[in-house]
Amino acid sequence: MYLAQLSLLNFKNYMQADLNFQSGVTVFAGDNGAGKTNLLDAIHYLSLCKSYFNPIDSQQILQGADFFMVNGVFIKEEQKDTVACAIKRNQKKQFKRNKKEYQRLADHIGLFPLVMLSPYDITLIMEGSEERRKFVDNVISQTDHQYLDGLILYNKTLLNRNILLKTIAETGKYDPQLLEVFDEQLVASGNIIFQKRKAFMETFTEIFNQHYQYLSEDAERVELVYDSQLLQDDFAFLLKKSTERDRVLERTSVGIHKDDLQFSIHQMPMKKFGSQGQQKSFLVALKLAQYSFLYQQKGFKPLLLLDDIFDKLDEKRVHKLMQMVSDNNFGQVFITDTSAARMQDIFDKIGVEVTIFNVHKGQVDGPHKR
Ligand SMILES: Nc1ncnc2c1ncn2[C@@H]1O[C@H](COP(=O)(O)OP(=O)(O)OP(=O)(O)O)[C@@H](O)[C@H]1O
């Protein structure tokens, strides 16, 4: 599967852009702030119906305009699919495939799988557990619709249970049966998510380890561990046990919304003990594992978007990474970098042909085949 065309109208710093791509490696090169990452984000919209960086759609509209449009053409085997996303200020997002509008955006997720790696991903290591859950959810959702539906249901029920806990605290009126209704719903969807996360992590961890070892040439030992309260005990039992505490806290204190991933290096937390290069390598391995997992599950190659990834990686690791992504196991890869010459040099050494687009203040010049 690959993206053959991309058209932008009023998207971030682009008034208009029309680009044609081929499978293989494509580079967007240009100065800081030129709009390279914005091109990757437009591609992210086509695949996952949203920005990778900013959840507020209207903020992606070119300043001064009142709508944006991103259109793309994907080629999968012999099939050609057009995908169109339009955002107007204060209006519902319009998302179409082959001119037919989706009623549920969730139905689009997974059709054109994609993996993005960007400097922003450091939040996965540095920030709270929510970022890491989002990562897991993103990967599984692209391969399993039941998971996404279960997650949506769980989050809705959780919200309602928390509202009820607040109302109980405010009014002093406690109806245990009403709470039990929410508990049952929460346990049903929560258990499905838990089982799927657990199974996913078993496969994923192994793939992750292989990628990290390859990248670092076994230089260090890292670990990725799934952490959930539900690994200790049955969810229904835990929820019942925490009723009194939840009433005091006015929110639900147990469940899969507390799950986390632990990242460690030589058995110490990656956040505190990993060097910047080791942290970056960890993130690269995580995303390459995501790629391999999606490929395994889907049976075709996802898009790989590498945003500004050379910072902090030593030359050896950069070389290994580029060699890896340009071999046959990867399909279409988009890379951004400030230097076209550096990219050219790296790919010349590997002996791989790349297509380079030069980006300058919201204008794209190319393709230049090298
Ligand atoms: N809604 C918007 N309207 C107009 N311009 C925008 C909008 N959103 C972002 N921009 C502009 O887009 C530019 C950033 O583009 P982008 O992040 O793609 O740069 P980049 O080429 O990847 O740079 P770097 O090398 O620094 O990562 C900034 O100049 C920013 O002001």
Automatic annotation (TrEMBL):
Keywords (A to Z) from UniProt: ATP-binding, Cytoplasm, DNA damage, DNA repair, DNA replication, DNA-binding, Nucleotide-binding, SOS response
SUPFAM superfamilies listed in its UniProt record: P-loop containing nucleoside triphosphate hydrolases (SSF52540)
GO CC field: cytoplasm
Compartments where found: Cytoplasm
GO MF annotation: an example: single-stranded DNA binding
GO BP of this protein: DNA replication; DNA synthesis involved in DNA repair; double-strand break repair; SOS response
Residues noted as binding ATP in the record, renumbered to the chain: G30, D31, N32, G33, A34, G35, K36, T37
InterPro entries: AAA+_ATPase (IPR003593), DNA-binding_RecF (IPR001238), DNA-binding_RecF_CS (IPR018078), P-loop_NTPase (IPR027417), RecF/RecN/SMC_N (IPR003395), RecF_2 (IPR042174)
Gene3D superfamilies (UniProt xref): P-loop containing nucleotide triphosphate hydrolases, RecF/RecN/SMC, N-terminal domain
Principal location: cytoplasm
Domain AAA+ ATPase: from-to ranges: 22-357
Keyword check for ATP-binding: yes
Its biological purpose: The RecF protein is involved in DNA metabolism; it is required for DNA replication and normal SOS inducibility. RecF binds preferentially to single-stranded, linear DNA. It also seems to bind ATP.
UniProt family annotation: Belongs to the RecF family.
Name of this chain's protein: DNA replication and repair protein RecF
